[in-house]
Amino acid sequence: MRPDVTMESCRRYVLLVVLVLFSFVRDISTSVTHYSIPEEMKEGSVVANLATDLGVDVKTLNQRKMRLDIIANKKYLDVNKETGELYIVEKIDREYICTTKSSASCYLKLEVILESPLRIFNIEVEILDINDNAPQFRRDAIQLDISESTPKGERFSLSNAVDPDVGSNSVKTYHLSESEHFNIEVQTGRDGSKFAELILKKTLDREQQAVHNLILTAVDGGTPARSGTVNIIVHVLDTNDNAPTFDKVIHNIKIMENSPIGSLVIHLNASDLDEGSNSDIIYSYSLYTSEKTQETFNLNPSTGEITVKGMLNYEDFRIYDMEVIATDHGATSLSGQCTIKILVEDMNDNHPEISIKSFQSPVNENIELDTVIAVVSVSDKDSGDNGVVDLRIPDNMPFKLRESSDNYYELVVSEPLDREKVPEYDVTFTVTDRGSPPLSDNETMTLELLDVNDNVPQFPQSFYTIRVMENNAPGALLSSLTAFDPDLHENQYLVYFILEKEIANTSMSMLFSINPENGNLYALKTFDYEIEKEFLFHIEARDSGSPPLSSNVTVHIVIVDQNDNVPVIVSPWRAHGSVVEEKIPRSTDKGSLVAKVIAFDTDSVHNSRITYQFLQVTDATLFSLDQYNGEIRTMRMFSYRDPRHQRLVVVAKDNGEPALSATVTIKLSTVETVVKAYSDMTEVPLEYDIFSDLNLYLVIGLGSVSFLLLITILVTIVLKCQKPKPSNAAPPCRNSVISERNSTIADSTLVSNDAYWYSLFLAETRKGKMVVRQPVPKGSRYIVSSIPRGTGLTDTSDSAASTLQVGN
Asked: Is the peptide bond before 117 cis (omega within 30 degrees of 0)?
């Protein structure tokens, strides 16, 4: 609030404007009561006493229900009904009520309403402005871009400040911070607003100061005055007013001849104080630089690097002079220049040269020794020791150099070549002069070797043993026999086949098959260990060269046995399912041989090992069984409590996995012996009758077994003869050996007869044959037949049997 408008000195005045409108509206006053108050008065401040000013009795205000309405505004004012005073309810902001500055006056319109009788009074309250707002700029900073070439006196418009106050409280003037290049001039607009113009009073230089920071202050006319500021940032725009300059005007440089192309000679550096495109520099040769120099040296227009472009030769050209110009990219380009002198220093600069006059490639790997492969010539443009050259090749090669004439050399074969070891040779010819330092050059030629069929196919092994389990499936893969040939192409392509060999009129190609391409060996039939135990043949691998080479490998097929044959009990013989009956005296001593069980198995040695054991025995304390030879002996003498009939069930079990077995049941009957006189006993031993009877039983049993076996052999021969393929085997031969034995001797002799037959059985079995004993009709002799062992019918019919005749 202004000092002259205080609550104490504020003069309240009432302008009663009595407008006599001769209104016919009853009880409505047409007069307007006017008040003026400053804005921002404190809450509760009294504006005027309405009751007094309106001529209304204060005591009747409550009775007449006096109320105050503010038209189109908040309720900033109210009437105290006790005193009749008009007071401030809420601070009044003139700029909020009157948002526009088009009118200098701002009013609040009120209506005071009284009842009984009804009266309405119009009141206007003028809100007077105070300086409560500072000038403000629309932006925090003003950005200006001014070229450094702008002449002084140039004007630039600035955005004006805004003050919501009116009258003298609004913006009055502007001030600019101190600057040697700028000042301002305040202008008044048509609406009375103030604005400033920035004036350039001194020319700008971007290279000295690129940015100018100014502060513009707007001040209003209130008391006390208020102000607002804004930053003015002046960017000085560059103009091309500076020429490029080199750091050194004259350069003297030495360089060795034969410097590699691209070698850096000098890096020129020119600078321009301008910026942007005005400072971008391009380097170029001047018109005073010769074409020879420009062809020999390359100038990078962007970086100023001078590099070797052509060959430097001291003998041809020794001094190069050049002038380089640096030009900027300004609209009106400016330039600077420098002079460069390049001195070429002499050195051993001419490399020896190699010329391949003749080179023969490819060649056969079996090329003869001392054959000329290549002819090479060498030269050097230098003189003296620098022109003397030496030619060499690597030491670890089967070649040598032979000088044929002046500076001509021949490359000849010095060692035998082998393509399979080294398929090609990279022969590097190196020539070196005798300068200081020496210079050299090289030339590499590739010598390819052509393959010759000089390698036979090779198997990884010379002998293959292949184990095949019997009962295999036909067509089963047995093994893969792959050979390797280090030759190439058709010399490397291998074909496999079986060398024909017949075994028992059977070709190997009928038993086995080999894939001619990969060497896979297959079985064409199912093998039986008891018939065929092994095969030995050869497989050949042959290449496709000319002439073809081949090698073979020995293949040993071993048929592995399976436990697929049940032991066969040959003694004591009995018909299928029948019981063997034997008689023994009750007076038999302890340890006497009662019976002997003999079984054989056609499987291999491991699977055919037979062990014997009792499966059932009437009295376990009376008999013992040897598990290896099958002998049944008495463990004690018979007593009167022992039953007359003994039943023994013996099982013969092989050693296979799982084990197979056969059983035989022996029924023993004990008989009483008749005691004769001593004289009779001296003529014929007591044991004679007993053992004669026992011997008779054994002969009958073995004869029956032999008879059945002969029938089986005859049937097999008949079936073999009925096959379509004739057999070329030799007719079976028989070798008979007659052995006379006295069958009337004592019991021990009979036991000895069994032992002899058993030992003969073992001997023949070890030879792979089967022994069968058969009695001779109407005689006391018997026949022992030896037949090659085999389960197949063909094997039995084709085998040769030997018969041993034994008589008394």
From this structure: yes
Angle subtended by helix axes 686-721 and 747-766, to nearest 10 = 30
Q: Are 360 and 406 in contact (CB under 8 A)?
A: no
Query: What separation in angstroms does the CA of 189 have from each of 169, 171, 196?
Result: 17, 12, 10
Q: Output the average pLDDT for the chain.
A: 78
Whether 806 and 783 have beta carbons less than 8 Å apart is answered as yes
Distance CA 591, CA 581 (A): 20
- pLDDT tens for 292-325 read 999 999 999 999 999 999 988 877 888 999 999 9
pLDDT (tens digit, 9 = 90+) per residue, 157-190? 888 888 777 777 888 888 988 988 899 888 887 7
Count how many residues are written for the chain. 808
Q: Nearest to residue 656, comparing CAs of 565, 563, 530?
A: 563
CB 511 within 8 A of CB 557: no
Query: 667 - beta bridge partners?
Result: 581, 647
Place of tokens 């031969």: 733
Q: How far apart are CA 324 and CA 269, in angstroms?
A: 11
Q: Under the phi-then-psi rule, with left for phi > 0, alpha for psi from -120 to 50, and beta for the rest, what region is 606? A: alpha
Give CA–CA dist 545/488, Å, rounded.
Answer: 9
Beta bridge partners of 228: 218
Q: What is the mean pLDDT of residues 433-446?
A: 88
Contact 646, 618 (CB under 8 A): yes
pLDDT in tens, 361-403: 899 888 899 999 999 999 887 766 778 888 999 988 999 999 8
pLDDT in tens, 407-426: 899 999 999 998 888 989 99
Torsion sign (Cα): 475, 477, 479, 481: positive
Question: Six-digit token pair at 432?
Answer: 């070196």
How many CA within 13 A on the CB side of residue 639? 7
The per-residue DSSP string of 227-246 comes to: EEEEEEEEEEEP-S----EE
Q: Which of 181, 179, 146, 165 is nearest to 218 (CA)?
A: 165
Tell me the C-alpha to C-alpha distance, in Å, between residue 664 and each of 579, 592, 659.
Answer: 7, 20, 17
Token pair belonging to 366: 């079996």
